[in-house]
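Example protein as discussed:

>
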Amino acid sequence: MKRMFSRIVALFTNRKIWVRQIVVASIAAGVAWLIGEQAFDGGGLVAAIVCSLSIRISLYKSVREGLGQILGTAIGAGIALTTVYFFDFGVIAVATTVLLCSVVARGLHLGEVASVNVPVTALIVIGPGISSSTAEHRLYSTLIGAAVAIVFSYFSHASTPAGRTIDQITRLGKKAADLLGNMAEGVASGYSQDDAGKWLLRARILIEEIPNVRAQALEAKKYARWSPLAEADEADALYLRGIAMEHTVVQVRTIARTLFDSAVAGGVTQFANRQIGNALSATSYAISTKVESIETQSAGQRALNIAEELRLAAATLAEELIAENDRMDQDEFVRNISLVSNIERIADSLDESSPALSDVRTPGEPSHVKVMQVSPVTLAMKWPKRLWFAIRRFLRR
């Protein structure tokens, strides 16, 4: 009985972040209902629905979702009241409202979330029992729900966006270092194709975590732009380190793929096992040390020393492989020497000196998750030009 109770408790203690988020979301929905009911008769349900739709795992994302709700409310409510005025509430009003809302959302280049919120909010506003006062109350209740969601989203996480970014970068770095350590031991003692396949599988799983790290680093960067509680310089540095860790993990996967190809071709020649194993072990240690420096926020000269030591290990591996070139066939030599380039790229990522990090623009959020896929400033510049062009064409006729 005690063991079963411990297992039940562990289901929640092992998921502290998830438990915290659902508790905050539940309390927020309840508060939104309470405020909505106090403000308007029957406004609590609308406020609770909108709050549940808007609240997300962070303040930045909930502000974005809340903005989507506000845009949806303004557009949807206006269209809904217009259609009800002409057609009364019924099938024509509902169909026309959804059609026009979708067209307007498309014309304004609203993102996926806001595009859905426009017709949903419109239907909430024109629901049964519609009247001018009821529509107005539902409109205000929607705004209340979005506002409550924004406030409570601050409590969804115990740490700041920068803290969550550090956690994700270090967690991914530790996994990469551990994988390299396993590869180093396997290569040094002689590995099979099955071993190499397991390494490649783990490396592919690491690659799948990259979008989460990038999204979190971008959130910290954008949060620092408008919040006085965050340091913009720190967020920019973390964003660069997130990209550097992404490059590191990509090289780790390439190393795993190279070792797998070598295993398929017959395995690494025995006299090269020790050299490659030592180089991979040095790479694993370098990544682990870099992760520790990020955790303790002591990156700087230490990172430079780590990178230089790793470059030295790569140069030593290259010299040893070239010295044994006569004992290897050409394909095997090419595969082995490519590991040197992978290790050097990891070193460049560790001290963040690679031009690939600083001189190449990194994609931000996909447009389909933004509130507005096109900047409002860009839209404001385009529409007057299009309108003037249409007027000129009309006058020429």
The chain has two domains: 13-153, 161-359. Residues 265 and 323 are 22 Å apart (CA to CA). The two ends are 87 Å apart (CA to CA).
